[in-house]
Design a protein that fits this description.
six-stranded parallel beta sheet; 14% strand; alpha/beta; Rossmann fold; 45% helix
């Protein structure tokens, strides 16, 4: 029986119709103990405990107790009319009274913000000044060890090492993460015990390491004894040798085809086990590479040990293919388990995007920050490091330094063309500089001279202008050829000029993800079978990094040296030829000059001597220094202004500013696969998480100007508010994706 004296935090009716109550004291204690455990990873367990004990103290308010009882149909004796039942501010006031204003961003902000998101400092100050502590709050029952809190604040390892104070905001966000995740988990443990039981993963990295070692041994034993495979084994052994180093920054610079993916993973796992680390987070810039990498890791470790987290992944699509004959119920449980894990990343291996990782580090929202504490004591494997955006390079590098120094993280940069991330780099004027990482340990020593040993391509560069017709004419001289261009327009123009001979294929973001995936798989099958003598592919740079395709000849439109070498990595990848050919060309004759960041990168390449050995690491270093010297800013959105002064932190403003991808386009659902069946379901049933995840595979992002053009053609239907369908099916071409011309007008004119 529920009494008026009980301070309710949560409640539900059991199957027998009886009310089950979690008191506020029980909830706060549960959250406190869990948050303390999370925060212990970086030496702040008492702060985690304090956050848990204070965060819901406001639920003692008469206003809240009246609200929760009325909301659940319970009788109330308190008939007073309250203006609001907000409870979060109470714990913030208590934190201030117990510890002073100096902990505004270690206790008060987190507590006040645990439902809404971390506030900017003026807003928190206003709340603490304007709000008053309700009389009914029992302050006597708050038992916090102030001495221990001060001790942890002063004696944390990174404090003793005098970590840069500009990293302080990451500590605030990390404590916020501990509180938010603990609050959600304890609530789930009470309200939904079945979901709670699905959480976590029984396997540790130490458990999984033998699986990887067995897999690698199998690969090596079945690999032919070629020069390329001997070099791959050498790289692998060097990774094993260097895995026992202390936590820190490492780089693995291996030319394309050197087995970088699996070698880096083995290093990461052995390094993690050696240093007692909890998980591996693999961050990748492109969805196509993520899907490919995640599939490979799931084959090795099982679906239940690898979390794939990106916009196109739908846990509901986990099938029985790689699940060793699991029952239907077990598969359903795995789907739910993966869905839950996307909330807080409590798997041993995470495969995600650079955007997901870095935007989480600078976000203020509870749902996004929830996972952050699980980055502590982990290995972050940053794939294709050369793709880090220059406009955000300073806050990103500063963020990685903070996570390494404060939270015990190791970072491995993997790439075929390592950017310069250490030392002081001057920008376009003396006031613009990039302060890099003090020490990065290169796993592969210079003595290995891999760029010579793995040189499988002759690179020819012609920066004189060519026309579309001239390039198309050169392409048809080869039976199997890949041409990579910079824009969707250039891809379409060249594709249309190729003859209908053999198989010609197009790849660009005008195609939906499922269409792209099917096309890439078809290319791989065609190249493996050798049944079709002529295979010509026109693609944008989506195939440039990580997509495992191998052509004897590759053409690349002018670009930065890193992009050029990535394109060369799709040429003679397996070393089947004595030497492949990669040609760099310009479309300046068509007035198709590089623009924006691509122009800066191309100009940096053009400023290097024409006689350079383009594959040499020293040339790549010179290239990045050229690129950085032309940079106007390494912090375009002035993140430093919002976050680098510990007493004036503006979490919300920084979160709004830190967007690696400017989302100014429109997403269109297109007619591909079973997309139209899903649209029909959407129209009848409305939005669901699973349905929108499935529809993401059949969606194309286009510019606002192109969207307006399609609307003028009458080709677009707004299904639900903000959800658009390319309703004219003829506007989606089976070969090239969304077409931006008016096909109807063309037909009229032809008549």
């Amino acid at each position: 029986m529920i009494t008026e004296k009980q301070v309710i935090s949560h409640l539900y009716k059991d199957d027998g119709g009886e009310w089950i109550i979690q008191t506020n004291e029980e909830h706060q204690k549960g959250v406190a103990e869990m948050a303390a455990e999370f925060a212990a990873q970086f030496g702040y367990s008492s702060w985690g405990y304090a956050l848990g004990m204070l965060h819901d103290k406001g639920k003692e308010r008469n206003a809240f107790q009246q609200y929760i009882r009325k909301a659940n149909g319970l009788s109330v004796t308190d008939n007073k009319v309250y203006k609001d039942h907000n409870h979060a501010f109470v714990g913030g006031i208590l934190a201030k009274e117990l510890m002073g204003m100096s902990v505004l961003n270690l206790l008060a902000n987190q507590i006040i913000s645990h439902h809404s998101g971390l506030h900017d400092y003026p807003d928190i100050e206003s709340i603490l000044q304007e709000k008053r502590l309700p009389e009914e709050i029992d302050c006597k029952r708050i038992v916090l060890d102030k001495v221990q809190l001060i001790k942890e604040l002063r004696e944390a390892p990174f404090v003793r090492q005098k970590v840069d104070m500009k990293h302080f905001h990451h500590l605030s966000r990390m404590l916020f993460s501990c509180l938010v995740d603990s609050d959600r988990l304890d609530t789930e443990r009470f309200m939904n015990v079945e979901s709670w039981k699905m959480r976590g993963c029984a396997s540790t990295l130490a458990d999984l390491l033998p699986w990887l070692e067995t897999y690698m041994q199998h690969l090596q034993s079945n690999a032919p004894d070629t020069e390329v495979n001997r070099i791959r084994r050498q790289i692998l052994q060097q990774c094993i040798k260097m895995s026992t180093g202390e936590k820190g920054f490492y780089s693995l610079t291996v030319p394309t085809g050197g087995g970088k993916t699996l070698s880096s993973l083995l290093w990461a796992m052995k390094h993690a086990v050696h240093n007692g680390m909890s998980r591996i987070i693999i961050a990748i810039p492109y969805t196509s590479i993520i899907v490919q990498t995640a599939a490979q890791l799931k084959r090795i470790f099982g679906e239940e040990n690898v979390l794939e987290h990106h916009s196109s992944f739908n846990p509901d699509e986990i099938q029985d293919e790689n699940l060793n004959g699991k029952t239907k119920q077990e598969i359903i449980a795995l789907r739910e388990k993966a869905k839950l894990a996307t909330e807080n990343w409590d798997y041993p291996i995470i495969v995600t995007t650079n955007v997901q990782l870095f935007e989480s580090m600078f976000n203020n929202k509870p749902s996004v920050c929830r996972k952050l504490h699980n980055l502590a004591n982990s290995v972050i494997l940053l794939d294709e490091a050369q793709t880090l955006p220059t406009d955000f390079l300073q806050p990103i590098v500063d963020g990685m330094k903070a996570y390494q120094e404060m939270f015990g993280v190791s970072v491995l940069f993997t790439t075929a063309s390592q950017p310069v991330l250490s030392g002081l780099i001057e920008g376009s004027n003396p006031r613009v500089s990039f302060k890099g990482i003090d020490r990065i340990t290169e796993i592969i020593p210079e003595g290995f001279v891999l760029h010579d040993k793995l040189r499988r391509v002759r690179l020819e560069i012609d920066d004189a202008g060519s026309t579309y017709d001239e390039i198309a004419g050169r392409l048809v001289q080869y039976e199997k050829v890949l041409c990579i261009v910079t824009t969707r327009k250039d891809a379409k123009e060249l594709y249309d000029r190729l003859p209908e001979e053999g198989v010609k294929l197009h790849l660009s973001r005008m195609m939906c993800p499922e269409h792209i995936c099917e096309t890439i798989n078809r290319i791989k099958e065609l190249l493996r079978s050798n049944d079709v003598p002529v295979i010509r592919v026109i693609a944008t740079q989506l195939v440039e990094a990580g997509v495992d395709i191998d052509f004897p000849v590759v053409f690349r439109q002018e670009a930065g040296l890193d992009s050029v070498l990535q394109a060369a990595g799709r040429c003679n990848r397996e070393g089947k030829l004595a030497q492949g050919k990669t040609f760099v060309f310009s479309l300046i004759t068509e007035n198709r000059k590089p623009y924006g960041s691509m122009a800066a990168a191309n100009n940096a390449r053009l400023n290097l001597p024409a006689t350079s050995d383009w594959f040499a690491p020293s040339v790549m270093e010179a290239y990045f220094k050229q690129l950085y010297s032309r940079t106007e800013t390494f912090d375009r959105k002035t993140i430093s202004h919002y976050l680098y002064k510990p007493d004036e932190l503006c979490f919300e403003k920084a979160s709004d500013a830190f967007k690696l991808i400017e989302d100014d386009g429109v997403n269109l659902i297109v007619n591909w696969g079973n997309g139209m069946d899903l649209v029909a379901e959407l129209k009848t049933s409305g939005c669901t998480y699973s349905l929108m995840k499935q529809l993401a595979k059949y969606t194309v992002g286009i510019r606002q100007s192109d969207f307006k053009k399609l609307v003028q053609y009458g080709a677009v239907e707004e299904i639900l508010e903000g959800i658009y369908l390319l309703s004219d099916r003829e506007q989606y071409d089976k070969d090239t994706g969304v077409r931006l011309d008016n096909h109807w007008m063309e037909e009229i004119l032809m008549i």
